[in-house]
Amino acid sequence: MSKAKYSQVQLQPGGQSQSQLLQPLEYESMEGLLDDVRAEDGSIKPQWSYLLSTLRDIGPEVMREREQKARRILRDDGATYNIYGNDGSPSSSWELDPVPNVIGSEDWANIEAGLLERSELFNLVLRDLYGPRTLLRHGALPPEALFSHGGFLRACQGITLPGEHELILHAVDMVRLKDGSMCVLSDRTQSPSGAGYVLENRTVMSRVFPSLFRDSHVHRLASFYQRLRLKLVSLSPSADVPLVVLLTPGVQSENYFEHAYLANHLGFPLVQSGDLMVRNGYLWMKSLDGLKRVDVVMRRVDDIFCDPVELRSDSQLGVPGLLEVVRTGRVVLANPLGSGVLENPILLKYLPKISELLLGREPRLSSAKTYWCGDDEDLQFVKANIRQLIIKPAHRGSGISSVWGGSLSDEEINLLLTAIHTKRYHYVAQERLEKSHIPSFVAGALEPRPTILRTFSVATDNSYMALPGGLTRIGTAPHGRVISMQSGSPSKDTWVTASEPERIVDADLALEIAQAAQASPLLSLPSRVVENLYWMGRYAERAEGSLRLLRTVFVLLNGEERVSPNARRILLQAVTQITATAPGFINASEELLANPDVELLRIIIDSGTAGSIKSTLNSMISSADESKELLSTDTMRVINDLRDALEGLDIELAAGLTSAPEESLDPLVTALVALSGLMQESMIRGIGWRFMELGKRIERALQTINTIRSLMTTVTGEGDQSTLLTALLVSMEVLITYRRRGRVRRGIELGLELVLLDSSNPRSLIFQLERLQQHLDQLPKSVPDTGELEEEGRALLEAMTSLQLSRVPQLLETQSETREELDNRLHQLDKLLKDFNRFVSDKHFDHRSDPQQLVTTFWGEQ
Amino acid sequence: MLFRVKHITRYKYAQRVTRCYNIAHIIPRDTARQKCMSNQVSISPQPTTTMHRGDYFGNNAYHFEIQNPHTELVITAESDIQIGDHDIELDLDLAASYGEVLEHLREMISPDTVEAREFLLNSPMIECSEALEDYARPSFQSGRSLKVCVSDLTSRIFNDFAYDPNFTTIATPLASVLEHKRGVCQDFAHLQIGCLRSMGIPAKYVSGYIETLPKPGEKKLVGVDATHAWIAYFSPNEGWVEYDPTNNTAANRQHIVTAFGRDYLDVTPVKGVIFGGGDSPLLEVSVDVKRLESR
């Protein structure tokens, strides 16, 4: 590639000249870079030729479109890799490069054989380290290499899994060397991440490049996930239909998208620590219909955090008492607790020796040359060559970070050497491998990027199966040293090409899958997920109600007809009341009421003000994240629209309220209406939907009461009355009905009847109460039905009766400045509904107190 | 000699504890010089599950889970322990020298030695330091019998450090104990272990009980005994040898071992997680060591 062309592309990323559009998309290797595309003689390797010629024909412009399409699909699927910044806000989007990494079938056969062997070997090592430790006795591994490692969990001694294997899921990061062979950089054996992203990448690529994908004869991935599922199910210690759950640290986890995605794909409930508890020596999931016994946990929580009783005592991500249940074999964790010990890079140094001892031969797959500072000779070597080496921690949790010696100043080198000297067992060094480059689509051109491949293998009955593919990650620049998801490296789909047409279905596997599917229990939900749906419903409704009122107030205040100071005050106070952002306009000075913009702006976009539109929507979005696995793709898309609309609002209102601020709020209202429509139209009428509806109806009922109280309980003059009534009717979307019916009769009586008692108005209070009653009837009953009403039923019935017995003219009668009858009645309804809400949440949601340590000690570095 | 040890641990909570999960190291283990003949643990309120197992270090770990709400937890462990009869009075000068031991540790890969090397490393509560090494060095000469070296170190700690139950808590770091020269048995044990490891000698933490004898003419009071802590060091020829820096003695027949570990954290008498309970639970411990027979 010529320098000129490169800079031209950079300068004009968006608008390319016509001549460039017609240019084919060519890939040229860069001088001095290790490149996977060309063979030594300069010819293009066969596995790359079809892809590159197709891309050439596609051209840069179409490629851009495909890239956009891929980005859209990822966004709609909610594919994120959360990197939490200092302000706690996630900056996240899963980056997929549209050019796949292609691996030929013969090449793959070698890699695969090496992988399977490595998994077998690591499995034996794991069994030995928590068992007889013959590796130490035979001198294959120095005791300090094991005993000083933070991943060696003494509490896990002797734990074994049913079946042949201890290591269930194994991921290996590797790079391609100059000679074309693969070399391992590290192993992931705790709770390897990436397998879900692989699936998502594949889904996107097959949609974006349907014909290229079809014609490339790419190995399918599905059977790997089916194997994984079968293996997990087979680990169950119980004879009953097993309950397998996927344990995630929660939405804050950088891989949360993947956890939800895998849980859905595998058909396992996604749980967090608070959803589980140990009782009577078993592990249970708290679901709406009581405790469900858990048989197998696919864990995505690091082992050290899994049980505050025996492991890290300050962990909030684990389940107290879990390890003891594991020990008795009543629940199985995969990968087993303690398996993080295999991620110790010191093992790489001794692997040939270990392999000799356990397998009788050296491993096929080589590992990066690794030096351990705990070894005298290695320490001398590291000291002498520190600038040519990558210095790494032996244990990732030790607070030591990896560093490339070549990038350090003399002073930093001295500091590092001192640190190594005091904790020599905790440091390893690795040679820096030149990474092979492959084509990637960058700013409209194909450019070489350094590559790391993460492969996966899963234990089957008596051997391992490799995922035919993997997660390819690329550097952000040629020669890039750091390639990690944390540093924002893009990913690629990995295409292993099949030499012969694949058998679509493996007959044995199909049978097993059919049997397993038959045995699958209905998916029960952790009550946390349901509670989050409930809150999602409430927050969405709260935001919508607040937005409607704000919009109405803006229109009235900025409208042609003059609003009296009195009406103005009542309107603004209603805004404070409905958004619960007091003091705000309550008891406000004349000056504030005359210049309300700053306060209104705060009520809209200040995320630090609880009750503001932004804060309510943020809460809604995080509730949605917590129950992500139950939301449809369309719903996720609308939620993404909301995210975007919120960002847009920030920009639009950055300089203060605009002349027609109600227009800025429109996109939010539109998105919320779409969301509410989706809930009605595309959600299964299960328990989740019911609770979301329940939340929505309760919120709407409370908002209606609140709005009427704010606007209608003060007695005002004729003109103000009309303004306030209009505000009420507009914000509740019934002005048109009112006008139509008003041909016969007008005024506050008709207005109140519409919003309180008209069952045909879906925004009326009575409508909400009727819906609440319907939902209540369908909720799971905790005790046998005795015919006696439970307390939430009583509260609702009382509210309903009180409302139905109301006569609007009576409510409006008053001798004073306020309509006391109306106010009292609404106050009573408000209280009854809040009681109802409390009874329902107490009964169905889990309000646990946080655990604490009996003895407060501290956990040292180990 | 047969001892009966009654160890009562009582927690009083400010608020109700709705459930709890605990591990106790309160049942004495077997060692080269003692055997636990019988033991009984009773817990109030009644646990929903209990489990007694051998842990990584070969100690008795007792797990229990309580699901009944309670404001008081009482754990009573009663054990009969037979202890070898003679006090271990050894000829200090015949044992291997410090220098020889260091060499053996490096070269031998007998299972014992391999295992002992675990106790050379830092552990959660004990980190080797130059300060520890500086303090320990005067006791260690390459040609001197290791036993004499350790005995000397034990005496020095006994003489240099003040026993002061008000100075330290579980969380007091070793450096602070060394600086202020005061602490309790647990601190002295950690200190001596840190010294030994800094000098290249594997050392472990021993938790247990010590029988206190009444002054002549006085009657022994029930419950005055205490949980105690001391150390054991390893030499390839003699195995593990126990010393008590708090009392300036090699462990004798008044020392009853409960558990071995790298430090206190491995053998905490009662630990766990409680739900509820409020702030600062009140802890009372009473230990009674009684001789059942002297032969």
Ends distance of chain A: 51 Å
Rg on CA atoms of chain B, Å: 20 Å
Q: Which H/E pattern describes the elements of chain B?
A: EEEEEHHHHEHEHEEEEEEE
Distance between the termini of chain B: 5 Å
Structural class of chain B: alpha+beta
What's the rounded overall pLDDT mean of chain A?
88
- Please outline the major beta sheet of chain A: 9 strands, mixed
**What proportion of the residues of chain A is helical, as a percent range?**
40-55%
Form type of chain B: globular
The largest chain-to-chain contact, stated as pair and per-chain residue counts, equals:
A-B, 40 and 45 residues
Task: Supply database-style keywords.
heterodimer, A: 862 residues, alpha+beta, nine-stranded mixed sheet, 30 helices, 47% helix, 13% strand, elongated, disordered N terminus, disordered C terminus, B: 295 residues, seven-stranded antiparallel sheet, five-stranded antiparallel sheet, 6 helices, 20% helix
Could you walk me through the main structural features you see in this protein, from its secondary elements to its overall organization?
The complex is a heterodimer of chains A (862) and B (295). With 862 residues, chain A is α+β, with helices and mostly antiparallel strands. In chain A, 47% of the residues lie in helices and 13% in strands. In chain A, the strands form five sheets. In chain A, strands 3, 4, 5, 13, 18, 19, 20, 21 and 22 form a nine-stranded mixed β-sheet that branches. In chain A, strands 7-6-11-12 form a four-stranded parallel β-sheet. A four-stranded antiparallel β-sheet of chain A has the order 14-17-15-16. The model of chain B has no long low-confidence stretch (mean pLDDT 91). By secondary structure, chain B is α+β, with helices and mostly antiparallel strands. In chain B, helix 3 packs across helix 6. Chain B is globular and about 60 Å long. Chain B contains six helices and 14 strands. The interface between A and B is large, with 40 and 45 residues. Strand 23 of chain A pairs antiparallel with strand 13 of chain B.
